Amino acid sequence: MEKKNVFTEELQKLKEYIKIEGNEDAKRPLLYPLFKKLFGNKVKVESEACGADVYVEGQIVVEAKTNFENWVEGFYQALHYHRRFGLNYSVMVVIATRFVGVWKVNQLPEEAVKFSYLAEAYVAPNKIGKENAKKTSAALKVEIQKSAIYWLEPNDFNGSFFKGEGKSLEYEMFEILNILRNVDSERLQINTHNFIQSIEYFKQFFENPIDALHCFYAMVAYWDITSVVSTNEYIENCYFLVGFKGHKVSEPISVNPKYFPELKKYVENHYIFTNAGSGLSADYYFSRFDEALAAISPAHNKQHGIFFTNNYLAKFALWFSQQKISSRIGDNYIVFDPAAGSGNLVANWKMELKHKIVSELQYDLLRTVERRMRIDPYHQKTGFTIIPKTSERKGLNFIDKTATDYIAIIQKELNEKNISVDKPFAFLLNPPYKNTDENEIK
Asked: Could you tell me the pTM of the whole model?
């Protein structure tokens, strides 16, 4: 398994380069370590790279500037290394104080490419950068910015990160690292190591951090290398993720229209890593919902007193019940999980229980466990009932109801599925075992 934080020191130096004021010449030593660790002896710098700050043949060229205002010059300068010196690369990076822009060469605006093609080949890249920057209209600058696969500028840091108003350089470092590690890929991989950072990225599109979490989990089972974002003219302010070559479509996901272009670009430049051969499916990401919630909105956990069942503890609970009761518990009882959380406990009872009956006190968690069960072929086949319906936008709290009222609500939902309440209820649950700190045992 890949070690976490293996690039910690190198990312810290890159963060310093982006964060602190100063001339790029003085800061350049902060730039090299990450690229050298990523690309080894393939990396060439400065004189070795025909004046480029960093160059990896066939993959990447990096141009460092002092100020954000010089990014257009840096863009054309990076582009001219190919025409002037024949450098070969698929990705361009321009970096300055509080700024990083990343472009795929095959996705650049046609007009910008024409400027580069018409420039005198023998002229130095830094001079061409300045000349082409002067020719570039405000409209083309916007077009060049929109074509970037990654964009971080000074204004992005305005406002509170925790309120979703501004970006955090800590989290941006992970996204930059992800791009650099996948320069040859058409899309960037979101995997078991970085998916929480991806959810952090979505926070900028929503007023409530919980909605960023719902956005990710609404897409996770449909987000592959073919996925595109689609809209429907009959449903305002919503989009759908269409994946697996058009064979799978997500639920509608609400988003403010002003954020739609940036969200669409991010989604269509990334994909969720799964591996059927190793058993890694979208369900794995659901099993770590508690970690994601604790990272995205720790206050939500504390406010609602939410505690989760670890996936390993869920397997132990299954084994323990088989030893003490029976592996055929579903034959003798109507088994009901009244506080399913992210669904780890009930998901581990697949073969022992057929039709699953699940509820949750919190509506946000109820939506998550329903999504999880909907994408699971076993649950699709054997059936399940979510109580109450998520369309009602509420959970079912057993603390504030009498036993009679509580059972009546369950019976009503089961009757609609033609399920008879002809056996005693067995409640499937275990005591909460931890708080939002993954290392602190309750």
From this structure: 0.63
Separation CA 105–CA 88 (nearest Å): 10
Q: What six digits make up the tokens of 359?
A: 């509820």
Each residue's pLDDT tens digit, 190-234: 888 789 889 988 999 998 888 999 999 999 999 998 999 999 888
Mean local confidence (pLDDT), 311-332: 72
Q: Are 68 and 153 a contacting pair, CB within 8 Å?
A: yes
Q: How far, in Å, CA of 126 to CA of 121, rounded? A: 12
Nearest to 178 by CA among 165, 160, 162, 196: 196
Phi, psi of 111 (to 5 degrees): -65, -40
Cα separation of 311 and 317, whole Å? Answer: 10
Dump strand ranges (E) for 250-294. 253-254, 270-272
Tokens of 199: 């959810």
Q: Which residues, listed in sequence order, are joined to residue 425 by a DSSP beta bridge?
A: 334
How many CB atoms lie under 10 A from the CB of residue 92? Answer: 24
pLDDT tens digits, one per residue of 258-317 = 999 999 999 998 999 887 766 788 988 998 888 888 888 776 655 555 555 666 777 777
Compute the C-alpha angle 19/21/22, nearest 5°.
Answer: 130
Where does residue 422 fall: left (phi above 0), alpha (psi -120 to 50 degrees), or beta otherwise? alpha
Give SS3 for 65. Answer: coil
Question: How many angstroms separate the CA atoms of 335 and 328, rounded?
Answer: 11
Report how far apart, in Å, the C-alpha atoms of 402 and of each of 52, 250, 409, 414 are.
Answer: 72, 37, 11, 19
Which of 262, 88, 259, 254 shows the shortest CA–CA distance to 183?
88
End-to-end CA distance of the chain: 28
Question: What was the pLDDT predicted at 354?
Answer: 78
Say whether pLDDT at 100 is over 90: yes
CA dist., res. 46 & res. 256, Å (int): 44
Reduce the DSSP state of residue 42 to 3 states and report it. helix
